[in-house]
Structure formats: C-alpha cells, structure tokens
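Q: Could you fold this chain for me?
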Amino acid sequence: MVNLALVLVLALSLSPCVVSGQRASSWHRPNDKSLSSTDLDAYHCGRECKQNFLKGIQTDRAGFGDFSFDADFCRTADSFTESSEPGDVLKVQSYINDTTSWNLPGGATLYRVQYVSVGLDTKKVPATAFVILPFAKRPDNEPFPIVAYAHGTIGTFYGCAPSSSYNLYDYDTWRPLYLAGYAVVATDYAGLGNNYASHHYLASTLAAGDIYYSVIAAKKAFGSILGNKWASTGHSQGGGAVWALVESEYVTSSAPRSQEHALEFVGGVSISPAPRFADIVKTFAQQNQTTTLCAYAPFSYQRCAQSIFYLIT
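A: Sure. Below is the predicted structure, expressed as structure tokens.
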C-alpha cells in the first residue's frame, strides 16, 4: 500500500495553497504576510514544519507575485441567495489596459466575474472567473468566439484562485488562446476565490458545471461582444473537468440548458487529464508507488466524502 508517512510529508512540503485548505474566518493568504519562525511557534510548528512552510511561502510568492488577496471582490455578493439561478452574474470588475498590476499581453482587457454555479447536492454556490478580451476588433465587428479555459492544480485553499495571481496562473495555457483572437473565459472553480463553499478538488463533474456556468455568466455580462459558439480546453485538473464537461448533459445537443441559452458547444480538448482520480490512487497503491499528486488525496477525499459519487464519475 502507499506509504502514508510519505504522503503526509509530501503534503506538508506543498505550498500553503494546499495545506491552508480550511475555510478561514479572516480573509488573507499566508503569502500576503511576512510570517517569521517565531510566528509559527504559536501553531506548534517544529523545525521541519517551519522549513516546509517557509519553502511553500516562497513557492506561492513566485506564483502569485506581490498581489494581495482581493477580499472585497471575492466576498460573496449581497445579491446571492439560494434562489439565485446558475449562471447569474453577481459582480463584474474591469481592469482595462491595466498592465502595471497584472502581467498581461499588450492591449488585453481583463474582467473578473463572480457568478452562480452548482455545488454538491445541486446547491447554488458563488464562483469566480476571469475574462480576457482581445485588443483588436474582429472583421465587421463580429463577436469574439469563446474558449472556456480550465486551469490545472494550483491548490485547495480559497486564496489560491488563478484570478488572484499576477499573471492569472498562465504557463503558456490561456495566453496563446488570447493571442489567437479568442475571448478567454476562465473559471477559478467554486471554493477558489470565494469561500462560501470548500473547493472540491478533482470532483470533475462539479468543475464541469463551473466551466459551463462561467460561460453563461460571461455571455450575460458581455452580450453581443461574445459569440454563441464556444469550446473548452483544460490541463491536468482542468483536463479532467473538460472531459467531464464533454460527457455531461450541459453540452449535449438534447440538453434543455443548451437550447435555453442558445449556445453552441463545438468541442473540448482535454490535456493531460486526471478524469478518474480514484483509479489513479488505486493504481499507485497496487504498485506500491507514490507521487506528489497523492499528497492531494486526503484533501480530495475530505472535500468529497459527503458525496463520493462526484469523485469517481
């Protein structure tokens, strides 16, 4: 079986975006603060714990830059209620030609959107996303075609949202899509950014809904600027989400949702997906092997134990 001690060591060596995964009452990221060795003593953090935590802080700062977590935007909108409809727009914030704060392609127009998605047991949950619009207009002012991008693993803590990273967690992923002239709609996934609900890591069925409703919300927010045709692509965790999306009723031709919103889904590209995480863990256990990915297993199980169906389908 998998060496549990090794899994726990790997988990502790990951960035605070993973190990700080509990729902917090105060809105901040660990990497937003200059925590000293003395500060960590209050948490009964020993020598090895301190080394791993401070190393994780450095990793997070490399990924998020000097950005502080935007609590005002990510806080659940007052207009959100349990009767809100999936795809409803709760907040929109624009960053037009803001290249001083963000590392964006030249001329890019950035928006952040808070919208309504669906969580466990079909409960409504807020989620956040970013939308990037190209600089140049299309011929005859045609609307921009949409590509919904689903990001790979970044963490399970609400402060780990890609939309709160200085480069929107780009590792040559969404940027080539923007440069090709597509409007990019990229969900953070519910539980990353907004902390109304925990992030259900690798629950691809739920993430598929986050992708779909981010497109619905973007279409509502930007209207005729965006076209009705859209595709989706994702990597790793996002690859599994896109895989689930393509198999889901959200985008099948007979789905009432597709007809209701008059959107035409043309296809999805799943890159290095993890669509069956339970099978991955089982395979490594049978082969008496482990991997850094297995360090996420306790968090994935903890978040999905209420409805394990979402983890294995």
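A (continued): The CA atoms of residues 228 and 262 lie 7 Å apart.
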